[in-house]
Write a structure and sequence with these properties.
Keywords: Hydrolase, Metal-binding, Metalloprotease, Protease, Zinc. Zn(2+) binds at residues 283, 287, 293. By secondary structure, the chain is of the alpha+beta class. It is 18% helix and 28% strand.
């Protein structure tokens, strides 16, 4: 996860260590790391010394955490790009350069920001800005598609979540600004044991429930308010009569369960390098933060929940029941009231910001400007692809499908371009469904 940290220790000694995340010896710390047999350090937050990325991975049934950052004012720590026979990741403790020298840590991100983070909210009053901390995970299919490269994976997840976060930043009360605190990758299908799959279709509801148990029973480098799983396969539900899975959904989440351990989870499809399901991801996170579908009544498991009966029409907002979720890429007034209700319901432990570092400041970039409608349409349906075009940031994929008497027909599907897709002339890119210059948004 990404966070500003320091370790409260005496001067570290240069060498190779194998960090292990353990319970803190101090009741005031957020955890501890054991660097050697006799060397245990408590984790404390700081907005002074710098930033760190925890990139976690599951392999051979063991969860490893890479740790980069500062031990104190004189020494830092970073992972060596090797593993020992046990699969553990050795880390190097090294002396920091003098202040006039440049500090370089091999963090797989593009740039850093000098922007000051907002202050923590430690009062009992709900904050005007809610910063839900999120851990994003992805399956072995996405891991392999992104060439098993931590750099490519981190960059892709940050850009994808920048698009999602842009949508949440339109919420007025409470203002919402997601905070990415961790990235977790599963290297093999054996490691993602909670995924229920048949014929390359993932059971949405069964996998979501098991994923919740996984997050509840796993020690992460940083705890989060919600955990989101991305799968590079189709999601489906079971036919009640045949018990067979069919690809019928794109995502799933539990309404209003942010900060509820074991239930604060969501799942969605994603197909790199397309940033394809950004609206689905935003929709499912909207559920977690308290929003039911527009037009629905209050959810039964949350007493006093306001529901969204008054917002059944027009069916154009992020929490509409079905269909393409496109412009204006906004949440309805009902959704905002529901999220505000859940914010107050979950209380200070949920809404207070545990890390002062906003990892989205690492890069504000969104979907790459080199992606074309043809790339998207071919990736979605390579076997039947015929042609692709885009107008007003709406992509139309034409596919050859079987017709009558052995003939072929052309079937057209539309997709709303992810934020950042190139459009028009003069370097325009899609942003909330409009073709415009977005330099001020991504720089």
């Amino acid at each position: 996860s990404a966070t500003l940290i320091i370790f409260s220790v005496a001067t570290a000694h240069a060498g190779v260590v194998y960090p292990v995340l353990i319970e803190s010896r101090s009741g005031n710390s957020r955890g501890a790391v054991q660097l050697s047999k006799d060397y245990v350090i408590d984790l404390e937050e700081s907005s002074v010394l710098g930033d760190s990325l925890f990139l976690s991975e599951a392999g051979h049934g063991v969860v490893n955490h890479e740790l980069e950052g500062y031990l104190n004012f004189t020494h830092g720590i970073e992972p060596l790009r090797i593993h020992d026979r046990s699969g553990r990741i050795p880390h190097k403790i090294f002396p920091l350069p003098t202040p006039e020298e440049t500090i370089h840590l091999e963090i797989p991100v593009e740039e850093r920001s000098d922007e000051s983070p907002p202050p923590k909210h430690d009062t009992a009053e709900p904050p005007s800005e809610w910063r839900p901390e999120i851990y994003v995970m992805f399956d072995s299919v996405i891991h392999k598609y992104l060439k098993e490269s931590k750099y490519l994976q981190a960059r892709y997840i940050i850009r994808l979540m920048n698009i999602v976060n842009a949508i949440f930043k339109t919420v007025r009360k409470p203002r919402i600004n997601l905070q990415l605190v961790g990235i977790f990758r599963f290297k093999t299908r054996k490691d993602e044991y909670f995924i229920v799959e048949e014929d390359n279709i993932v059971s949405s509801h069964e996998s979501l429930s098991a994923f919740g148990r996984f997050t509840e029973n796993t020690t992460f480098a940083r705890p989060a308010d919600l955990y989101f799983m991305l799968v590079g396969r189709r999601l489906g539900t079971r036919n009640k009569e045949t018990n067979k899975l069919s690809p019928s959904v794109y995502g799933s989440a539990l309404t209003g369960m942010v900060c509820v351990k074991g239930s604060n989870v969501g799942i969605a499809e994603e197909r790199p390098p397309l940033y394809y399901r950004f609206a689905t991801i935003a929709h499912e996170i909207g559920h977690l933060l308290g929003s039911t579908h527009d037009g629905n009544g209050p959810v039964g498991h949350i007493p006093g929940h306001p529901g969204a009966k008054e917002c059944e029409s027009p069916s154009i907002y992020m929490m509409k029941r079905s269909g393409h979720r496109g412009p204006p890429f906004l949440f309805s007034n009902c959704s905002e009231k529901e999220m505000e209700f859940v914010l107050k319901l979950r209380g200070e432990e949920c809404w207070k910001t545990k890390s002062n570092y906003d990892f989205f400041n690492v890069t504000k970039e969104v979907a790459g400007s080199s992606i074309t409608p043809e790339i998207l349409c071919r990736r979605i349906n390579p076997e039947q692809f015929a042609s692709a075009e885009m107008k007003d940031c709406v992509i139309t994929c034409s596919n050859r499908v079987p017709g009558k008497n052995g003939s072929q027909e052309i079937k057209k599907n539309i997709h709303f371009a992810p934020f950042g897709y190139p459009c028009g002339k003069n370097g325009g890119r899609c942003w909330f469904g409009n073709c415009t210059n977005i330099d001020d948004q991504v720089c």
